[in-house]
Amino acid sequence: MTTDRPPTRQRQDPYVEPSGIGGVLRRLARLFLFFAGLTACLTASLLLYARWQQSQYAGQVRIDQGNVNLNPAEYLYLQGYLGLHAAELSRPAGTAQSAATFTIAPGETANVIAANLAAQGLLANTELFINYVRYYGLDASLEAGIYTIETGATVPQLAAALSNAVGQEVTLRFLEGWRSEEMAHYLGQTQPAQINAAQFLAIVQRRAPFDSSGYDFLDEATGSLEGYLFPDTYRLPLDADAAYLVDLMLQNFGRRVTPAMRQAYTAAGLSLPQAVTLAAIVEREAVVDAERPLVASVFLNRLAQDMKLDADPTVQYAVGQQPDGAWWKSPLSVTDLAVDSVYNTYLYKGLPPGPIANPGLASLQAVAQPAQTAYLFFVAGCDPNAPGLHIFSVTYEEHLVNVANCR
Q1: Is the peptide bond before 331 cis (omega within 30 degrees of 0)?
Q2: Which CATH class for the 88-162 domain?
Q3: Apex 286 CA angle, 385 and 232, nearest 5
């Protein structure tokens, strides 16, 4: 006898991963999602810990909005890194025991700056400094300059100080009456900014390219730029070069020698180059500013009477630098006074062919407004109570007496 039974359910096999490329891709996708989740958890934990670290130093450091131009991965990394180093950011960055002068040269990167800070004992952790300025976008704001770093400065304080253009200038002082070679020597000794002394002299002597078309007062000048390098105190940026300095000095000359002064030169029958040449002689002869108009009157009177100027500085210029390095030989010998040079005003009448030095404003004004005198001679005075003054005379006989009295 047959007994009917309910049909049995067909047994199902467990899931089998598809084989082939599709299966491999699925496995890789799951592996990627696993590691992505793990990374997210670790990153979140790291950021939470970093923020907790930061909170322990609230009011001392800030790890907040950084440079939004960073890519997200770098942004998160740097934020986490700085949070973990919040304690270190609140402490002195280096071991220096006193304030120090620190220089950033033009073009130096944050890495180089960090290394230099470390070399001076101003920074112990260069990576922390680099990451800090990177996170806040200050790495592009670290400016060339000379800075004073105070004792105990933290990394944030260092970054803030070096991001501000403080003390970024070089100060140069050129004395009245220096010839261009003396200026170049001074530049060679001080080596300021990016100024090459030899290049400076080459520009002045017209041996190197320099665009002087913007200076109308040079239109009549046929020689070097001697005489037009206005002596003054100049403040230059650290990236200034020789051409920059020459340009600055010429601009200064153009401002200081006013249109009224130039009109006065013309009224006296002098071209601008002649006036500057005479002013350079006055600069070297006179010691006291009050006497410069008197000295100028003597030379103008001699020119008017077709007399030789007999000016010692023109001979000093002609004989040049001495073995001891001096540019203005004193006293001059009889042989010196006979040197055959167009600059020797003991031999040749009139003004020399160009300025012998760079006159200051007082001498340039003295030529524009000379004293009205009949003087034709002067000699250095010998009164110990009036150093630097001269004795002036109209006749040669009076002059000889004055010379004899002061021998």
Answers
A1: yes
A2: alpha beta
A3: 115
Q: Are 282 and 292 contacting, i.e. CB atoms less than 8 angstroms apart?
A: yes
Contact 342, 317 (CB under 8 A): no
Determine the Cα–Cα distance for residues 104 and 106; give it in Å rounded to an integer: 7
- In 177-288 the beta strands, taken as DSSP E runs, fall at 233-237
Secondary structure (3-state) at 382:
coil
Residue whose C-alpha is closest to residue 192's, from 237, 136, 254, 255: 237
Q: Are strands 145-149 and 169-173 parallel, antiparallel or unpaired?
A: unpaired
Other C-beta atoms lying within 10 Å of the C-beta of residue 169: 17
Domain residue ranges in the chain: 88-162, 169-256, 269-375
Q: Dump pLDDT digits (tens) for 14-69.
A: 555 555 676 666 666 666 665 555 555 555 454 444 444 444 444 444 455 677 78
Q: Is the pLDDT at 289 greater than 50, yes or no?
A: yes
- Please check the confidence at residue 145 and state whether its pLDDT lies above 80: no
Which of 6-20, 217-231, 258-272, 319-333 comes out lowest in average pLDDT? Answer: 6-20
The whole-number average pLDDT for the span 62-88 is 80
58 forms beta bridges with 61
pLDDT band at 104 (very low <50, low <70, confident <90, very high): confident
State the sign of the Cα–Cα–Cα–Cα dihedral 275, 279, 285, 289: positive
What contacts 167, CB < 8 A, 6 or more positions away? 145, 146, 147, 148
Instruction: Let me know: does 285 contact 311? Beta carbons within 8 Å.
Output: yes
Half-sphere exposure of 266 (CA within 13 A, CB side): 6
> Whose CA is closest to 64, among 46, 77, 83?
83
**Tokens representing residue 388 in the block:** 């630097």
Cβ atoms of residues 63 and 82 within 8 Å:
yes
Query: Helix, strand, or coil here: 402?
Result: helix
Share of the chain above pLDDT 70, in %: 83
Contact indicator for 392, 378 with CB cutoff of 8 Å: yes
Q: Which long-range contacts (CB under 8 A, 24 or more apart) does 304-310 make?
A: 305/376, 306/349, 307/349, 307/376, 308/345, 308/346, 308/347, 308/348, 308/349, 309/281, 309/345, 309/349, 309/350, 309/351, 310/345, 310/346
What residues have CB less than 8 Å from 14, skipping those under 6 apart?
none
